[in-house]
Amino acid sequence: MTARVGVVTFPGSLDDADAARAVTRAGGEPVPLWHGERDLHGVDAVILPGGFSYGDYLRCGAIARFAPVMSALVPAARAGLPVLGICNGFQILCEAHLLPGALTRNAGLRFISRDVRLRIETARTPWTSGYTAGQQIVVPLKSGEGAYAADPGTLAELEAAGQVVARYIEINPNGSAADIAGICSDSGSVVGLMPHPEHAVDELTGPGSDGLGFFASVISVLAGA
Amino acid sequence: MARVVVDVVLKPEIHDPQGEAIAGACRRLGFGQVAGIRQGKRFEVELSGPADDAALARIAELAAELLANPVLEDFSLRTV
Amino acid sequence: MARVVVDVVLKPEIHDPQGEAIAGACRRLGFGQVAGIRQGKRFEVELSGPADDAALARIAELAAELLANPVLEDFSLRTV
Amino acid sequence: MTGGPGPSGQDTVSVAAATPGRQQPFAELGLTAAEYDRIRDVLRRRPTDSELAIYSGMWSEHCSYKSSKVYLRQFADKAPESAALLAGIGEQAGVVDIGQGYAVTFKIESHNHPSYVEPYQGAATGVGGIVRDILAMGARPVAVMDALRFGPADAADTRRVLPGVVGGISFYGNCLGLPNIGGELAFDPCYAGNPLVNALCVGVMRHGDMKFAAATGPGNKVVLFGSRTGPDGIGGASVLASASFGNQNAEDGGESSKRPSVQVGDPFMEKLLIECCLELYSSGLVTAIQDLGAAGISCATAELAAAGTGGMRVSLDAVPTRDASLRPAEILRSESQERMAAVVEPRHTDGFLAVCAKWGVQATVIGEVTDTGRLEMTWHGELIVDMPPGSAADDGPVYHRPVARPAGQDALAAADPAGLARPATGSGLRATLLDLLASPGLADKTWVTQQYDRYVRGNTVLAMPEDAGLLRIDERTGLGVALATDGNGRYCKLDPYAGTQLALAEAYRNVAATGARPLAVTNCLNFGSPEDPGVMWQFEQATAGLADGCATLGIPVTGGNVSFYNQTGGAAIHPTPVVGVLGVHDDVRRRLSIGFATGGASIVLLGRTRLELGGSAWAQVTHGHLGGRPPRPDLDAERSLAAVLIAAASGGLLAAAHDLSDGGLAIALAESCLRGGLGCRVTLPGDPFSYLFSESAARAVVAVRPGSQPAFAALAAEHDLPAEVLGSVGGDSLLVADCFEIPLAELAAAHGGTLPALFG
Ligand SMILES: Nc1ncnc2c1ncn2[C@@H]1O[C@H](COP(=O)(O)OP(=O)(O)O)[C@@H](O)[C@H]1O
Ligand SMILES: [Mg+2]
Prior knowledge:
- The complex is a heterotetramer, with 1 copy of chain A (225 residues), 2 copies of chain B (80 residues) and 1 copy of chain D (760 residues).
- Chain B is of the alpha+beta class and 80 residues long.
- Chain B is built from 2 helices and 3 strands; from the N terminus they run βαβαβ.
- Chain B has a single domain, classed as Phosphoribosylformylglycinamidine synthase subunit PurS (Mth169, Chain: A, 2-Layer Sandwich).
- In chain D, strand 27 and strand 28 form a beta hairpin.
- In chain D, the strands form 5 sheets. A 7-stranded mixed β-sheet of chain D has the order 8-10-7-11-9-12-13.
- By secondary structure, chain D is α+β, with helices and mostly antiparallel strands.
- Chains in contact: A-B, A-C, A-D, B-C, B-D.
- Strand 2 of chain B pairs antiparallel with strand 2 of chain C.
- Adenosine-5'-diphosphate binds next to strand 4, strand 5 and helix 17 of chain D.
């Protein structure tokens, strides 16, 4: 049975179609989920895609956090449902307190759209199990508020518990604390990532296909479960 | 060290889509008594000297040139 | 109609690149007495009813849940 | 006698009839006395305030094309036969058939004046406006481009305007989820005080999905949806884009002095509008649709009615507003963003409103279609507008403005750059190349393009810094479209006819360089005041050049936009037509990049190189000189070049292709090396300076795959296209035999350092 991966569309979501395409490419079945429904339709995993939910007015992700679909997603995620938040999705996960810390204004104060090199720091999440720890990948980053911030205690805990999922190498494009590009919950099932693996699933339209591993990982984990 | 707060608000006739979207969210969250929201900025300016008249006059200049966009915004100063 | 202002400021320990950039620009423009700037937000909330204690308590809830992010920001209310 | 207002205090139709002598502020609204008299003739009375608001918007230069109309006709009259054209000039945007059941619509538009007043919001709302044009054709917008021109890069005002403009385009386009796939960035003192901000949008639909802006069917409802109407942008069309721009604060049409012309964009609302409209279309709920742009509700209602059954009745007080104090004339003139108007059958209105509600878009029935032949509007039950809609929408004034070749034109042509000192040694040529590569106009544009999302929607195959943007349209077949915009004010200043053809040729060449077949043209004509006969001469020459050029190249103009009054005081900008060309790519997997990435590929220069330096980047950068004749356009040679590039791409013969334009071969080689990460070694077949820096048109440099050289040579010969083998790809430097060698790192530093140093 192919894994069914939900992709949530909020008003202002932009990369939902890309995320669904990436799921298909990785062999899964994408299931569109609507922000206004309190129902996950029995999916095996969920992606919160990139974009500007509610215009990113107020703070990125601040309004989306209260969408009806989140009232179903938050308890499911706490109970172990694999969730990947990409860019705006990461911001929503932080605002919803499923992940610690916050994403703040880029150090250079401008929107950045560029390819970045990341090091995958852990393969123990369902979204990175297909990579090896230490593996380097190139994927696009595109955000204005992508600088990860958290208090020193939280940062220390994240490091100690191995919850840093990916780090910027070569350069830190946005001033993220400890070069953090992505983190996970203590169980590992909820992952937030600022760069966009769904834009790197095909040489033709992306910098390469290094990002496919996130989607392939969860699908193979679900198949084995 | 003295501190001056510069409040920057959109001119009343300028459209504030952010404020509207936030007000909409408030109502969806059950805060029915919110009739509207206008979002502005607030700058806390720390001075190396006292907040005397001369300094305030300089800060007002600064606000007009840099902190507020005169095409869209108004500003006001207060010492705290 | 009553109006409540919610001021949202970054917690003191949080880095504020925007405020720093503006403070730098001030000094380049010759406003030497600016020791630092912190940028915050200001929400003017218009109420459909009076700004009584009950309404203020609701607005404080709103500020804590929506208008400010407790990870990064503090807020305060004032009636105007 | 005094005619008191009606019971509501409004200037109603009956009040107007009773008070024929009342003074009206037509001049402040941008109308001439003769135009005002014509309105009185049409109505056989004086207009009401609201009618005057409608006419002033619709008869503005921006909406009526009154000075340009007589020239724009030739785009249709001289247009080549094109089976691909599904809708042409006259629609909001042209529509072309790209095969496999797909149609594409694209258009470029200016937002110059608003972007000078408030760069961030001005540019942002420029993107918003052109996207709604495309949406209103029935298409899904799929990408944007931006063609930008500013004053000197190191001028203080450019440091205010440029970052604001780029930030605004980034903010709006990124938030809409439209990839930015290309554009232009140029600097010249003539644009100080008059930046050019031209935005292009392209959309895709299936055949048969096309929508028209015609209010047909009496009884059908007129629905206004999107943002509420506010006091922003009141009179933008008549005031901003007109002669009075210079002192636009001086008058506001007699309305409250607090009414701002500056508008704030709400890309989130626009994103909702896009999704909402597409669902309305696919559910079959829309009879006709029109975006609200310049002249707002005036324009939407008058145009819909004029193009349809002919009549419409509107309750203006039904329009949702953000400000209860707005008066009818202000509501009519407001240019609040993110609004659309639709005509809907009564049986579909509930469904229509439900889809809008799903997307959180406010929608209101404001009127209905009638067969009276009149556009009638009421305000609290009183009739305040009663006019034939065609008189505003179609029968505006048409001017044959005086035309005169500018006095200085001959002297300009005589100032030939041939006499300027040229570098003669290898080290001199080397230094010249590095100077040009680092000059703001030719420098790496990453500072700008890094603020634009190019990836969203997952179909961007080529984007900046490639020659053209290339989008995949069909994932299964690989069908795609390529787009490029070009313009060169310096060439056009020297010779507007030739200069416009050069802009057309460059965009055509850029599209072909990806392997796509050019199909259609859009254009944005940025000029000074039409009341200046010299400017009108430039305009006459430019439009003739474009129409003739399109006829020769066999690709029709499908639409465009005119922006006049680009001047500061008496000084007009260089005439700057910006031309966009769209091409079809049969299989985007066979696209060509500009990058030299295949070691051992042989480098071939295509086309004929002459010593042509008039208006060149070399003359500007090294001598601050503008004079002489621009390069000679050779459109037949452009066709041959394109044919070879397209055939070679589809035959898989090439590893890279890059057109030659500003800065000539020297800059093209440097860009291809930097893009692909490999160097090259070349030997020039003649005078090194001419080969490196001349800007002869109809040329490209290609990297032929190892082993494909004989087949490629045969292909070029078949098209009579000169093809000179210069050398090969490889190494980590740009080496020109007997002249110089420059390590890639040094090229990159020169190319990449300029804009960050200027703009932070
Ligand atoms: N304002 C801009 N927005 C987006 N892309 C831009 C902009 N300015 C330049 N570019 C891109 O940078 C690249 C180099 O531009 P340019 O040298 O003008 O191209 P060409 O000479 O081939 O027309 C092109 O890919 C162009 O699309
Ligand atoms: Mg080019």
